[in-house]
Amino acid sequence: xxxxxxxxxxxxxxxxxxxxxxxxxxxxxxxxxxxxxxxxxxxxxxxxxxxxxxxxxxxxxxxxxxxxx
Length: 69
Prior knowledge:
Elements: E1 23-30, E2 33-40, E3 59-65
Antiparallel strand pairs: 1-2, 2-3
């Protein structure tokens, strides 16, 4: 991290992140437009190590446009 006064702090470690994760992905498209998302079924952090002790389950939603020549 770099603070406004120029002071820097480096942190080395695993930050209590889970080493492996798995999830499900779904894709839907029509023409040149696609919508896809992934939901991970494992928590981002190890059990009870997330912010304020909550388990966080990450997810992604994305848009894609394709261009055909």
